[in-house]
Amino acid sequence: MNSEEEFYDAETGLESDDSLEVSFKDALVFDSSDQVTDGSAAEPNAVWQRRKTLPAEMITRNNFSVTSILKKCIGMELSKIAMPVVFNEPLSFLQRISEYMEHTHLIRKACGLSNSIDRMQIVAAFAVSAVASQWERTGKPFNPLLGETFELVREDDGYRLISEQVSHHPPISAFHAESLKQEFAFHGSIYPKLKFWGKSVEAEPKGTMTLELPKHKEAYTWTNPMCCVHNVILGKLWIEQYGTVEIVNHSTGDKCVLNFKPCGMFGKELHKVEGHIQDSSKKKRSVIYGKWTECMYSVDPKVYEAHKSDKKAGADSKKLRQEHSCEDENAVLETVTVIPGSALLWRISPRPAHSVQMYSFTSFAMTLNELEPGMEQLLAPTDCRQRPDIRAMENGDIDTASAEKERLEEKQRVARRERSRDEEEWSTRWFQLGTNPHTGAEDWLYKGGYFDRNYADCPNIY
Q: If we measure between CA atoms, which residue out of 176, 178, 217, 169 comes closest to residue 5?
């Protein structure tokens, strides 16, 4: 088998508004007599209760060593390395992408603000929140098969999402989310490039995020920060995000520059994010600060500069934390020093008490591979939830998961050889390569039609 025929499993990378009332023709209707498993429950009034746990706890990795796999791969892209299934988490990368939507309430909040700088502050908080679920998530998601899809319909939160694996080499995942009330559209494509550097794995999430707010005739674009997983050979795994993220409002010329700070020699900068918003004349209008693992605040630039120059700031930091920390005893303990006069933009939701035993999933992530009653009849046959290796791993059956993963990889290799022999090109189903109207760059754009539920010509990939 030559290198072109090889298949590699690459490591990649809501608070609801109770007043929101929508009607969605594609939403599922459940009968209260349906039997429900996996920690979910159907109540007599047929209100669906999403599951709060997985069917089985995380598979132990104590008996496996990544050293023998990675020791010859320093400086290489990890898309060229086949990893044992035990190092995965039971989600596809397409499902991992959908976790951007966990804090959709921030987008709705931005829609309701009349001032463009205020909207930019909330959009910046949303961009930070999109990476928050990666905290302590050291398992790699399954690499999507070519043509794999994932849909997420959340009528209670007022949106729906569709994603598709549009390329295998390089691995590119495209997604499109939209409000059920036409309040927003959020879309993008991601090409994760990963490299192993001896003790760490570095991920560069190439691709542009685009958020459109039709009410304000605005479009925002940005790219995600770099991500690094440390101590992959020995020691406790930990994750840091670093790099500069620029969010541009293409309608007003406003820009937000966020600096995800690297850990530093003594770890003082770990998880910190600082930045500012400037208007079209480059005047600094707001300072944003916090941690991507905890919360984000905004403050007037003059107040921020005065605080920085105050020699007592360090001595007063403990007092400030006590005065401004969240009073909810179940909330995440904040370590951010809050500057007086700051406004809270976003705070992370606490994870379930059993999260560590469940691959460090958030409550939101816990629901993504759930098959709700009646869903199988509506899902596309290419949806991640139909994928047998992920399902087996979720159920704690590592042997079946490994065997199914190998079967699917071989099936994809055979299909690629057949296309090569017949000189056929792969044709994407729901997305097409085009031009992002706001950046002018090449981008994968949603063609529409997925929620018409016509899946007759979907490929048989499982």
A: 169
Task: Say what the pTM is.
Answer: 0.83
Quickly list H helices, 79-155.
Answer: 93-97, 105-111, 116-129
- 96-149 pLDDT, tens digit per residue, is 999 999 999 999 999 999 999 999 999 999 999 999 998 888 888 999 999 999
As a whole number of angstroms, the distance between CA 229 and CA 203 comes to 8
Q: Per DSSP, what are the bridge partners of residue 422?
A: none
Q: What are phi and psi of 23, to 5 degrees?
A: -125, 125
Tokens of 104: 């959709």
Contact yes or no for 426/413 (Cβ under 8 A): no
* DSSP structure string for 343-410: EEEEEPPPPPTTGGGGTT--HHHHTTT---TT-TTTS-TTBGGG-HHHHHHHTT-HHHHHHHHHHHHH
Q: In Å, how far are 66, 147, 231, 266 from 234, measured between CA atoms? A: 10, 36, 5, 19
| Residue range 43-101, pLDDT digits in tens | 444 567 899 999 999 988 776 655 555 555 555 555 555 678 888 999 999 999 999 99
Residue 282's SS3 state is coil
